[in-house]
Specification:
Helix content: under 10%
Distance between the termini: 33 Å
Number of strands: 21
CATH class: Mainly Beta
Strand content: over 45%
Shape: globular
Length: 439
């Protein structure tokens, strides 16, 4: 274990040393601060190349809330080509190589490994900045609101993309996005392909002047799958409709707020589906412009299933979220069957450095259902072990070393509550250090 940690940390030191060389070059006054800058200077103005490399060490103690440890190194390289030969015509391509080293999980999960793949590849008709109508078709990321239900999260070593068509209609007061497609299934030993038997459609609207000093975003998603198995054992189709609204705005005296609520209806292999989720947040921003302190509280709740064999589906489906730090920085939980309260603080420390801390309290919404991770039950409950999962303090720090380089540190520890102890589980600890470098 210690040897793995040392090796992984050495890799990070090498990556950071390389980034510091780039920073020194910036200070010497070079007109081009990256290899991509030199290349783009020789290319036509409508053609741009960019690259990003990220190395991240994750050390986990108490994996799956058991006496298991794992330390591994994640590496990700992305190469992008952006071509805009006309004001209303754009082509975008992004290749990705994502790998994991030193892990004790075999085979590694597809969220960590995706070697040499076409991550993005689309054509866009219309200018998203100046035109009222834009159509994007091809492999693309979809992200709306805070990414609680639909996101191409950058924290993920692989990301999430869709083979889809997206139409955007924009005016001074509103924006409406309509899309239809299918999520891409990552293969750790081949190219990503559309998920068989799945269809995903949606409408997402954003109104900037519907309410004073606020943005209101109603949405509707429709998820279809073939060959799912219901609670009473029959196989059939999933027909799941999610409707919700996000509302965020500012208040007097430097306060702001955010709210989101969603309901789900439909059928799961012929069985009725009924679920819900809600999010509320209140934040205060201090007056110190240099340190920009912020403190906030939030409450998140998602429904669970009262009986896994009654033929009714009541657990909320989180769809395709960007889940990092939505429910604690250790990333062990999701919105489903969870009641989550948080108090948090964030502040800048100067010279590109910022840090934050948070305390999270976690309960099962329905004690007859269990803990979910990535939309699946990870620890089941018989309804007799109580509903207090535990609490999780987190600390995070970021250092923007240069314009192209960022160093991040995140640590979280889940202290086991009555539910985890009653089900013979332990707490867990997560420490993450990463270096991101643009080229």
């Amino acid at each position: 274990m210690m040897r793995k940690i040392v090796v992984c940390c050495c890799c990070l030191v090498i990556a950071l040393s390389s980034s510091l060389e780039t920073r020194c070059a910036d200070k010497r006054g070079n007109t081009s601060t990256s290899p991509a800058g030199y290349l783009n200077a020789e290319l036509p103005s409508w053609l741009k190349f960019s690259a990003e490399e990220r190395m991240r060490v994750e050390t986990l103690a108490g994996v799956q809330f058991r006496a298991k440890d794992n330390t591994y190194l994640l590496h990700r390289m992305r190469l992008s080509l952006d071509a805009t030969p006309l004001d209303s015509l754009r082509f975008f391509l992004q290749a990705q190589d994502a790998r994991v080293f030193f892990t004790n999980v075999t085979p590694p999960p597809s969220t960590q490994k995706d070697p040499i793949d076409l991550r993005l590849g689309y054509v866009e008709l219309g200018n998203r900045e100046t035109r009222a109508l834009t159509l994007r078709a091809g492999r693309q990321g979809l992200e709306f609101g805070e990414g609680r239900l639909l996101s191409d999260g950058n924290w993920s070593n692989v990301g999430r993309t869709f083979d889809a068509a997206r139409l955007t209609v924009r005016s001074k007061r509103m924006q409406l996005d309509a899309f239809s497609g299918v999520s891409d299934k990552i293969a750790i030993d081949g190219f990503a392909m559309p998920t068989p038997g799945e269809h995903f459609h949606g409408l997402y609207a954003s109104f900037a002047k519907l309410a004073p000093a606020a943005v209101v975003e109603p949405y509707a998603f429709w998820k279809l799958e073939h060959g799912v198995k219901g609670e009473i054992g029959r196989s059939g189709n999933l027909d799941e409709k999610t409707a919700g609204v996000r509302w965020a705005g500012s208040l007097p005296d430097r306060f702001d707020y955010g709210m989101e609520a969603a309901i789900q209806r439909g059928s799961y292999a012929g069985e009725p589906l009924s679920a819900w989720a809600a999010h509320t947040m209140l934040r205060y921003s201090g007056r110190n412009a240099r340190h920009a302190p912020k403190a906030w509280v939030e409450l998140n709740r998602g429904s669970g299933d009262s009986d896994a064999k009654d033929g009714r589906h009541e657990a909320f489906d989180t769809l395709f979220p960007g889940n990092h730090d939505k429910v604690g920085a250790a990333d062990q939980f999701c919105w489903t069957n969870l009641t989550h309260a948080r108090a948090a603080f964030q502040q800048k420390a100067g010279a590109g450095v910022s840090f934050g801390a948070a305390e999270n309290w976690l309960w099962l919404t329905n004690r007859r259902d269990g803990i979910y991770g990535s939309g699946k039950v990870t620890i089941a409950s018989n309804g007799l072990e109580g509903n207090f999962i535990g609490h999780e303090p987190d600390v995070q720090a970021k250092w923007k070393v240069s314009r192209l380089t960022q160093l991040e540190f995140t640590a979280g520890h889940v202290f086991a509550g009555h539910f985890l102890r009653a089900t013979n589980h332990t707490g867990m600890n997560s420490v993450v250090v990463s270096v991101s470098q643009g080229f």
